[in-house]
Amino acid sequence: MRRVTTQPILPPAEEQAARFALQREADRTATAEDYVELIADLLQAEGEARPVDLARRMGVSQATVTATIGRLQRDGLVETKPYRGLFLTPAGREMAAAAKARHELVVRFLIAVGLDAETAEQDAEGLEHHVSGKALAAFAAFLAGRDGQG
User: Which of 46, 51, 75, 80 has the fewest C-beta atoms lying within 10 Å of its C-beta?
Assistant: First the structure.
């Protein structure tokens, strides 16, 4: 008689390490994407993006925003202008547009598979940064097929 084990089998160490490395990179990128997306939204909606607004909307301290903005400046995504707030560089605008498009796709997919809009929005905030390009393509294909049948 064959014995069935319920313990998962570990993948090879190199493969597992690569997965964790991708996850850590996605975590680092997620913060930058959240900031540039919010800056873009504030610029569009209010005409300006101030660090105090970022802190309030993200639920973090002004010190956290200041440190993050410094990193985004070093990465060439954000510019500051004295007495004028924050602005996105072309690279920052590109990142913000890509993040927004990815977010909207994930939300549409989650709603299509049965989640309510509020939960889909909330869950997309985390998923959008960690989903692979292959998964995004599959989401888009699913939605295209679904929209084409409707």
Answer: 46
